[in-house]
Amino acid sequence: MKYENEKVSGIHIAYIGGGSRGWAWGLMGDLAMDSDLTGTVKLYDINYEAAQINSTIGNNLSLRDDVKGKWRYEAVSTLKEALTGADFVIISILPGSFKDMASDVNLPQEYGIYQSVGDTTGPGGIVRALRTIPMYVEIAEAVKAVSPNAWVINYTNPMTLCTRTLSEIFPQIKVVGCCHEVFGTQELLAAMLKAMKGMKDVSYKDITVNVLGINHFTWINEASYQGMDLMPIYKEFVDKYYETGFEEHPGNWEKSFFGSANRIHFDLFRRYGLIAAAGDRHLAEFMPSTWYLKDPDTVKAYKFSLTPIEYRLKRQKELSHQSKRLANREEEVALRPSGEEGLRMIKALLGLGNFVINVNMPNQGQVSGLPIGAVVETNALMARDSVRPVMAGRLPIDIHNMVSRHVLNQEVVLRAALTKDKSLAFRAFSNDPLVNIDINKAEELFNRMLQNTKGYLSGWDL
Amino acid sequence: MKYENEKVSGIHIAYIGGGSRGWAWGLMGDLAMDSDLTGTVKLYDINYEAAQINSTIGNNLSLRDDVKGKWRYEAVSTLKEALTGADFVIISILPGSFKDMASDVNLPQEYGIYQSVGDTTGPGGIVRALRTIPMYVEIAEAVKAVSPNAWVINYTNPMTLCTRTLSEIFPQIKVVGCCHEVFGTQELLAAMLKAMKGMKDVSYKDITVNVLGINHFTWINEASYQGMDLMPIYKEFVDKYYETGFEEHPGNWEKSFFGSANRIHFDLFRRYGLIAAAGDRHLAEFMPSTWYLKDPDTVKAYKFSLTPIEYRLKRQKELSHQSKRLANREEEVALRPSGEEGLRMIKALLGLGNFVINVNMPNQGQVSGLPIGAVVETNALMARDSVRPVMAGRLPIDIHNMVSRHVLNQEVVLRAALTKDKSLAFRAFSNDPLVNIDINKAEELFNRMLQNTKGYLSGWDL
Amino acid sequence: MKYENEKVSGIHIAYIGGGSRGWAWGLMGDLAMDSDLTGTVKLYDINYEAAQINSTIGNNLSLRDDVKGKWRYEAVSTLKEALTGADFVIISILPGSFKDMASDVNLPQEYGIYQSVGDTTGPGGIVRALRTIPMYVEIAEAVKAVSPNAWVINYTNPMTLCTRTLSEIFPQIKVVGCCHEVFGTQELLAAMLKAMKGMKDVSYKDITVNVLGINHFTWINEASYQGMDLMPIYKEFVDKYYETGFEEHPGNWEKSFFGSANRIHFDLFRRYGLIAAAGDRHLAEFMPSTWYLKDPDTVKAYKFSLTPIEYRLKRQKELSHQSKRLANREEEVALRPSGEEGLRMIKALLGLGNFVINVNMPNQGQVSGLPIGAVVETNALMARDSVRPVMAGRLPIDIHNMVSRHVLNQEVVLRAALTKDKSLAFRAFSNDPLVNIDINKAEELFNRMLQNTKGYLSGWDL
Amino acid sequence: MKYENEKVSGIHIAYIGGGSRGWAWGLMGDLAMDSDLTGTVKLYDINYEAAQINSTIGNNLSLRDDVKGKWRYEAVSTLKEALTGADFVIISILPGSFKDMASDVNLPQEYGIYQSVGDTTGPGGIVRALRTIPMYVEIAEAVKAVSPNAWVINYTNPMTLCTRTLSEIFPQIKVVGCCHEVFGTQELLAAMLKAMKGMKDVSYKDITVNVLGINHFTWINEASYQGMDLMPIYKEFVDKYYETGFEEHPGNWEKSFFGSANRIHFDLFRRYGLIAAAGDRHLAEFMPSTWYLKDPDTVKAYKFSLTPIEYRLKRQKELSHQSKRLANREEEVALRPSGEEGLRMIKALLGLGNFVINVNMPNQGQVSGLPIGAVVETNALMARDSVRPVMAGRLPIDIHNMVSRHVLNQEVVLRAALTKDKSLAFRAFSNDPLVNIDINKAEELFNRMLQNTKGYLSGWDL
After folding, report:
1. Among A172, A350, A391, which would you mutate to test the C interface (most chain C Cβ atoms within 10 Å of its Cβ)?
2. CATH code, domain with A132
């Protein structure tokens, strides 16, 4: 790398899952709009062809006149090739196919267990984790061997266990897990200021929050905008919209599987007094099945949706077509911010501007009371070659209990995956709050799910 | 007190709940059989008459020729009187009436929640705790004011929260909580040696175990008898009796509400690999309702019973009659060991013989990973004016997760009771593994139970 | 307070030690140059007249046309009056007179113990602490009673023990201790960039450092400027200037009692590998007397000075004259930044700009390995009504051992002062690295020093 | 091994340092007097001939009619041979020769540093540790490879660092470090009961103490005998004998280099309030040189001695002669208890009698506040295949500070020895309380000492 006039050239980014559609193009767009950095992005994907198409798309972009950041994109066929010389490693993979995800989500429904996402916790999240951890073991070992000083930025779910696997296998790894769900809650707070106070131009980035918990189940206990304390305003906001829910664009939740009317946000605030900082679809899955995911009617009453796998398959097909159009320049990558903060983090890590943002990292004490080493989500100060968590404090004990149950379950899942121990894995599975069915039925479901994902569980005694 | 020739006279014991039947007579018998100690027992009870009858029974005993330990029994009408000058304080009360207990146990059944005991955890245990904690606050404050140097021995359930309340209110209190459930598991191990190895005369006291967890949900990870490691033998034992269960006197579980065929012991060992160290009736209540307490048929299949309140009421009546017969000397207190270790502890605390026994005490680190200050059950070394826990180590993380959930829930219950916070109390209630019902139904149940126990909840906004 | 257009009016600052000269005028100047804030500063001082003169000086300032921030200054005669309604409390007092300080510094010299400052550690620092702690107990109790929600900013030395006393007496207090010594080391790094790399315009504020340790004995293990890692440059810098020392203005150390040629900085870096982040005068006092403070010749060889009390007395007199001139407007307060960050902190706490700065606060885990609750110095994120430490990590164990010895000694001093326990105080005194003399001689010195400061030790048995 | 009738045969003990004189014969005697155990002792020593002579001595013993425990002794020539099949490993070696020890003790004297023993701390202890740690690395690796389930009992000094090295290299090792110094203090308490209360037949084994600290610098905060609290009696005892000191056999300290009049015991009690639980010779070395080891006159005034190396050399020669006489049966091994508790521990670990005794083990929390993993000395409960520390609590903070300094210094020494880092080793050396000399002189001394012990420091850059 070479620094000159607060610009850096010769940066090498390894992109694991470089054949991905949405995420990869988002990053390409962000890089293209920034004039301070240039270098090479090596795209690695188990689907090499997809990586190649993406390299074409990326290189097309660099030819455009309106693009300020000119990067070279290169598809590579091995992990080692991607990592060699890497300054940054971005990981954004789909662990398994959507068919596997269908098993994660649909099979539990046969047993009366509904999941709105199925990629983080619950039966789907746990089985997905068992499948993903070996992939992350391989990545961690490769980073350790090939690019131990690179910064690794993870985007894959289950976020906590992916990040945790990296730090377990290679404890010195420089890793942050990044997720935009907290931004969504900051946006909700900005929308609240508009709705409650008539303040129109508040950017979510100017909402200061203190975040503590784990990915998709993290909590805000302090929120402010300039001189204003947002907590009492949020209370009024919840009181006003508790029954109806609140959306910036009312009715959106019925049109998009990703939308919601924030009724779970509001119910959790009423019951627990803090602001849960992820979308309702994720939050619902961390609570017992007797709360928000009892059955489709309950889901509808709470104004959110179960994301059907059919939708994901359809969307995948569309993106596949789009990728071809982009490669052929029948269509152009749009130059608008992706909403992710990967680029800003890279710049901070290069010394081009310290900032504070929420990240997922092993707990060094930033969340008091949660185990040291478990991956938690809090704010951190990013600076040159350094990410230091901000002390977030301690959750109220009632919330802590709920969070801790998931944290410890995740640790059990990790250990089960690493030791290929089916009995141990089931102990985690049976202890998930969504697995609220007869223990023997639960065991049957677990066995069927494992059979479906067996192809990824080499060395297990199944 | 006066020491002479390894005997101690002039000891003062305060007995809170001194009108109790079974427990009080047991202690009287134990004291009567020991020639090393004498002194006064002050009996305090909210039922003063019952305390008076017991004082007559106790003093009758001291008149008998076959009695070696001559104690004076005195009924007193205030807590302060009982505690004044006390060297030891024994607490064994019934918090509320059996009618209250009927609400604890029967109301949840209307909602499909079955409890085998209902005094420790589950809806019944939690509501009982809410009722009991104010009584223990009063006791703690009295001990602090009147007899701060006395050793306090608690026998009341919920053991953990009673002991925890004492240490919360008066952190310097010298307190141990005592429970015979671990002895029962040691006896099971002795019976195992007979069944599996033909060893007939093994006393449970010679079975060495390492105990760690919380009262009624504690675990043994090391067990030995002289040179023998009992863990592999237990594995064979479980394999042999897994389906049928095991009882020293087969069929007993169907005759007694307190018996069981240890099938839950065996199932927990199969699933988790450690020996759970309480009776099946207690263990069942700590696991989710989808395991052992799903419905009466499941209970029967696991060969244990739901203790009906009717039985307790009947038994109470019998004991009331017996107490009159004992006071009138129509019947005599039997001189046989009670099976409790209170006397042996008192002797150790007086300097008359160090020994190691399981006790419930605030965690100073004896169970790694559980919160400091939470009341845990492990071995401790008892010596003159000193009880020091033995480092018990760390539970396997999967078991730790289950135990930790209860520990934190107990902390929430404590705080709710101390601050009279109904919403907080419900957060604990709704997080109990037996409360696996629709969250709104759970709230209804909770409200009804609180109404029933309202008389004990002064200052609450109900 | 009132917010309008990102400006705040009606702020109330209580200034304890409001009769001080240098510090008070510096704050007045900083406030005067800032157009975003206005309000009232209440000046409280045991020397009421000095506070009155300062109020005149401050109000004069507000009349000037070139002053943007118009504040009202008011001398008050009680602590309570000052604190009533306070949003911020600034504490900058002289604990005792310079005559007391003469005893702190000169008496130890009779025993061969040399101190370069004598206000933080060593015999002088410890006795000063014993004298100061009761004053801080009084302040803490007043803040608790009168203005519990105010933010307290401490500038007084001994910084650690003053701040620690506040948090001991009123654990919920919102307190930060501020010290400019780290800025000095950041300035040294900026000067290094000029000397070694020809970079002329680097501001110390743009030097990013990770700080961990305790006030006046804190350490930097990461330092960067934009994309540059400053640690290897510092190594070359030390190698180049190890023998001669380095000063921006060579020879300055001989002219000013506050200067140094950074030889102790360099020696500590050579021996320990991290950058000590305070001036040499302070650093020397934390090391054993056999290192840098053996005798005046050693001090001279290391190119720093013992600050004579005569100098301080002379300086005090000058400032006293200046204060009169300022009150009479024979002279005007200069409008230049004081170099302290108090104003920037106040603005951040009001929601007018988050930033990261080093502060002294009770350890919540920001320095791993040091006791929770001890006051440590690290970076913190300042935001609206919030100061959250940044996780600074763990010191190398050899440095940790030296720091820990002082931290624990400070805890002993605190306890001794609170319990007025002379024997305990001597145990801290005798364990200070500068007290390297015969234990009986040490006791004699200690007794003489206590006699001299007796007037402040009410309730002690001396 | 074979159990029968509470006796065990076929035990295999590996004795590392099996050519030693005093210690080996003591163990042989203890084994010979016990009728419950038999088996083989494999003697390994770098001096093979000495091991052979000892095997002859041991086998002679087994031929005697008055010997109940018949063991077979076998000299082996490799560590591996000794450990193969071992149930127990006893380590009692002399790390280096007495010539090396002469350097440890005499060289510092040239610089004015006096040491009474020189094997634990101070310049001598640190250099001895640097020499010994590589030997223990070798032993730890061999135990890990050959006999990972064996119990290892260490007797070698420096006790803490020997034990610590074993647990660092092989964390799963089952190790206890045993030392009789606490017994000596228990004997002092027994003697006190005789002197103060006329109680003649008290055995030190019946004195119950709570011990906490590190080997040779551990402390007693509770002591009792039957119903008596010994702490107030000790206070009177100290008051009575503070000036004169106390010995059971007055004047003994002048005749034996190992005796003392306990004046340091008494002075530490006066100053700190707890009973230091090691001999004065050891205690003196943990305190700054300005206390008890200032010069020979001070030593004499405190009524203890500097053990001259000449004495050790002379004693070695005598034992060498004795060993030949024993091998030739010109003399017989005396059958009297050695005063060590190794045999009793072995029996407990075999399941033949649980008991509580002080041991050195990695801290799991038994001493609150000291680092987890550091080797500390407390009571422990020994049972079949199990040693569990008793929670000893927390030292008063002033004593904790002194102990902690040594604990952390030991950790630095360990790291320096493992990484062969001379600079790091000097940082520990220069931070020892006895190294109170000019820092440059200290460096010179350190270098000279390292040169003298260079033969053991392979791989170091000296």
Report:
1. A391
2. 3.90.1820.10
**∠A286-A288-A291 over CA atoms, to 5°?**
105
Q: Is C180 tagged catalytic?
A: yes
**Residue C58 CB contacts under 8 Å (≥ 6 apart), including other chains:** C24, C28, C41, C43, C71, C73
Helix (H) or strand (E) run with residue A37 in it? strand A37-44
Quote the DSSP letter at residue B205: G
Q: Has residue C195 been placed in a domain? A: yes
Q: Which of B439, B440, B446 to mutate to test the interface with A (most CBs of A within 10 A)?
A: B439
Judge whether residue D339 has pLDDT over 90: no
Q: Cβ distance D357 to B330 under 8 Å?
A: no
Task: Quote the number of domains for chain B.
Answer: 2
Has residue D409 been placed in a domain?
yes
Instruction: Report the candidate in A412, A286, A371 with the shortest Cα–Cα distance to residue B398.
Output: A412
A457 burial level (CB within 10 Å; 0-12, 13-18, 19+)? buried
In terms of Cβ atoms closer than 10 Å to its own Cβ (0-12, 13-18, 19+), residue B317 is exposed
Whether the CA torsion D158, D161, D164, D166 is positive or negative: it is negative
Residues C284 and C159 in one domain: no
Chain C nearest-CA distance from A215, in A, is: 19
As a whole number, the mean pLDDT across chain C is 96
Q: Name beta bridge partners: B386.
A: B383
CA of residue C60 relative to chain centroid, distance:
28
Q: What is the number of residues in chain B?
A: 462
Look up residue A259 and give its amino acid. Answer: G
Domain presence at residue C318:
no
Give residue D307's pLDDT: 87
Portion 388-407 of A in contact with B at CB < 8 A? 397-398, 400-402, 404-405
pLDDT, one tens digit per residue, over D177-222 is: 999 999 999 999 999 999 999 999 999 999 999 999 999 999 999 9
* D273 dihedral zone (left: phi>0; alpha: psi -120 to 50; beta): left
Residue D395, both tokens: 């030292």
- Which residue, B424, B400, B397, is CA-closest to B411? B424
Query: Tokens standing for D214?
Result: 């590190």
Which of residues 222 through 261 in chain C touch A, CB cutoff 8 A? 222, 224-229
Pairing of strands D71-76, D37-44: parallel
- C249 SS3 class: coil
Which amino acid is residue B427, in one-letter code?
A: R
Same structural domain for residues B238 and B158? Answer: no
Q: Which of A35, A89, A329, A358 is CA-nearest to residue A216? A: A358
Contact call for residues C425 and C416 (beta carbons, < 8 A): yes
Contact D40, D14 (CB under 8 A): no
Whole-model pTM above 0.95?
yes
What is the extent of the structural domain holding B168?
2-97+120-178+334-339
Which residues of chain C have a CB within 8 Å of the CB of D428? 398
- Regarding whether C380 and C232 lie in a shared domain, the answer is yes
